[in-house]
Specification:
223 residues, alpha/beta, Arc Repressor Mutant, subunit A, 2 domains, five-stranded parallel beta sheet, 5 strands, DNA-binding
Length: 223
């Protein structure tokens, strides 16, 4: 099961896993209902999306899932974590931690380890965590804030809508602009972020926490 706030990311990952022979029970759900959905479906493995792994209470859904369905292996899917974030995930009962921008082969390896009852976390994540603990940076670089400052408010809204899976028509309707203008905004966002596709832009925004900083946008207007 793949559960994430951002439908585009969740569905893309679910599709990739299906192509590799996995049976995916669900693709997306709001964070508030994630635990209940996982508990009701009881998958072997759950990839549970989070955007701010160091925030207090962020792993409460993991605690609830493990309390109600201890047999479910929960893999946290999130941005580059701090050492505290990794520790909090495992303390809550998670079987592993997978970065949002991990290759599908890495995600699959984590799933196999989790199913076998092993801790699933990439060696480079552990190395980075230990390095940060031993040599803490006085002022760590905030990539999400840096990217946010590169975009105009309109472009930030476009990026959030792209991450929510809206196509050009929905973006235009939701923002009250012409489709051609919406396409131009999307292309500018991709250029400024240095990515080649909407999926890459959404993954980068989620990994750096930019989406949380940007906040929600009004829903797109219906047809």
């Amino acid at each position: 099961m793949v559960v994430d706030d951002h439908r585009l990311l969740a569905e893309a990952l679910a599709s990739a896993l299906k192509l590799r022979g996995h049976r995916v029970l669900a693709a997306a759900a709001p964070a508030a209902g994630a635990a209940e959905l996982v508990i009701s479906r009881a998958p072997e493995v759950c990839l549970l999306g989070t955007a701010t792994p160091a925030e207090p209470g962020m792993f409460d859904p993991v605690v609830k899932i493990k309390r109600e369905r201890p047999q479910v292996a929960v893999l946290v899917l999130g941005p580059v974590p701090s050492p505290r974030g990794i520790a909090a995930a495992f303390a809550a009962g998670a079987s592993g931690y997978v970065r949002h921008d991990e290759r599908i082969e890495g995600v699959e390896r984590a799933i196999m380890k989790a199913r076998a009852g092993e801790a699933a976390v990439a060696p480079q994540l552990l190395q980075g965590a230990f390095s940060e603990l031993l040599n803490p940076a006085a002022q760590p670089d905030d990539e999400g804030q840096r990217l946010l400052q590169m975009l105009t408010p309109r472009e930030v809204e476009v990026l959030v809508r792209v991450a929510d899976g809206e196509d050009t028509r929905l973006i235009a309707a939701g923002m009250g602009i012409a489709p051609s203008t919406a396409r131009t905004h999307v292309q500018r966002v991709l250029m400024k972020l240095g990515v080649g596709s909407r999926l890459e832009a959404a993954a980068l925004a989620a990994r750096t926490g930019l989406l949380d900083r940007a906040g929600p946008v009004p829903p797109a207007a219906g047809p």
